[in-house]
């Protein structure tokens, strides 16, 4: 009985940090302050440029895309508020049609709307979603030959704070 009780206590001690995490990389709390999101210390600042601070998140982060690719994910903050999640994928093995179909389904589910714009510009397929209620935009572009992908999920109200910034410094320009 004592052994079983000790095992249960050890389980909760080890599992507690996972249960208490203050950040969900699948549903970022856009507009939230870095101090509130980083209570566990997993955000590591790596750059500041044009009034935007960039962080890597070193905590547990498992997204649907991890089943297919190894993405590079970072986060951008304006005035210490979460502005954007930036994702880069160097390429993947699936066909472009499979990638596009999977992406359209997953992102539409996450954003809560269908893509508002899809277009092809040379070798790039570009998509855009907009959740008007929450003021969230998601932009993705995929190279049709290399299958490289770039995506930015951002909180539109914080863009107003970037008026004095060079447009090229905005993470959303990665997918424009």
Characterization of this structure:
It is built from 3 helices and 8 strands, in the order H-H-E-E-E-E-H-E-E-E-E. With 176 residues, the protein is α+β, with helices and mostly antiparallel strands. Strands 1-2-3-4-8-7-6-5 form an 8-stranded antiparallel beta sheet, with helices on one face.
Q: Give the DSSP E fraction (strand runs of 2 or more residues).
A: 25-35%
What number of structural domains do the residues give? 1
Biggest sheet layout: 8 strands, antiparallel
Strand arrangement across the biggest beta sheet: 1-2-3-4-8-7-6-5
Q: What's the shape?
A: globular
Structural class: alpha+beta
Low-confidence stretches: 14-20
Approximately how much helix is present in the residues? 10-25%
Radius of gyration from the alpha-carbon trace, in angstroms = 18 Å
Q: What string, H for helix and E for strand, traces the elements in order?
A: HHEEEEHEEEE
- Total number of strands: 8
- Average pLDDT metric: 83
Number of helices: 3
CA-CA gap between termini: 62 Å
Question: What's the short version?
Answer:
The protein is of the alpha+beta class. The protein has three helices and eight strands, in the order ααββββαββββ. The N and C termini lie far apart (62 Å).
Write the layout of secondary structure elements.
Blueprint: H1 2-19, H2 34-37, E1 43-49, E2 52-57, E3 72-78, E4 81-89, H3 96-111, E5 117-121, E6 124-131, E7 136-143, E8 149-155
List keywords for this structure.
176 residues, alpha+beta, eight-stranded antiparallel β-sheet, 3 helices
């Amino acid at each position: 009985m004592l052994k079983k009780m000790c095992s249960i206590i050890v389980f909760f001690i080890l599992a507690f940090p996972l249960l208490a995490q203050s950040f969900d990389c699948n549903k970022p709390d856009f507009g939230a302050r870095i101090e509130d999101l980083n209570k566990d210390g997993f955000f590591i600042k790596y750059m500041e440029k044009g009034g935007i601070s960039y962080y890597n998140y070193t905590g547990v982060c498992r997204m649907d895309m991890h089943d297919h690719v190894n993405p590079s994910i970072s986060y951008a903050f304006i005035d210490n508020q979460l502005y954007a999640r930036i994702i880069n994928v160097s390429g993947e093995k699936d066909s472009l049609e499979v990638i596009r179909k999977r992406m359209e389904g997953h992102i539409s589910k996450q954003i809560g709307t269908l893509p508002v714009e899809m277009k092809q510009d040379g070798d790039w397929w570009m998509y855009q979603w907009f959740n008007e209620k929450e003021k969230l935009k998601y932009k993705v572009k995929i190279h049709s030959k290399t299958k490289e992908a770039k995506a930015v999920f951002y909180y539109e109200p914080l863009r107003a704070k970037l008026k004095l910034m060079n447009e090229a410094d905005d993470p959303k320009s990665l997918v424009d």
